[in-house]
Amino acid sequence: MTRIRSIMLFLAGVMLGLAIGPGNTFAGEAIAGTAKADKLGQCVEPTPVMRRNHFTFIEHQRDLTVHQGIRGSKHSLAGCIDCHARKDASGKPVPVNADGQFCAGCHEYVAASLDCFSCHSAVPGEK
User: Fold this and answer.
1) CA 13 to each of CA 57, 99, 111: distance values in angstroms, whole numbers, following the listed order
2) Total-model pTM
3) What is the mean pLDDT of each run of 10 residues along the chain (127 residues)?
4) Which alpha helices (DSSP H) does the chain contain, by range?
5) Per-residue DSSP letters for 13-25?
6) Which residues share a beta bridge with 93?
7) Residue 43 and residue 106: Cα distance in Å, rounded?
8) How many other CB atoms are found less than 10 A from the CB of residue 126?
């Protein structure tokens, strides 16, 4: 009976962890209008072009950076994060891959994998 109880407690803990989720541990609720991009008419490319080709731009920039050491182009992932990350009520950036945020929202809509942030930061870096 003790083994069954231990398994039940373990499963309850796992379910609680999934319900709380890591998205709630970063920052508060993002406030619309606090990202640089919220104040701009378009991105570094027209919106339809970015929606269709952003992954190609980022992949090309990755190759330039990794193979040739070229950083800071207009299609850099860091530039995307700096422009699209919103802030919460306390002024802290909310990760772009948090539930309902810029990257996560679109990737969820099209059922695409969002694995950039397993290595890269989802909030702007300190300058």
Assistant:
1) 41, 22, 28
2) 0.68
3) 71 57 57 91 90 91 90 87 93 92 90 89 79
4) 2-20, 47-68, 77-84, 102-109
5) HHHHHHHH-GGGG
6) 87
7) 15
8) 4
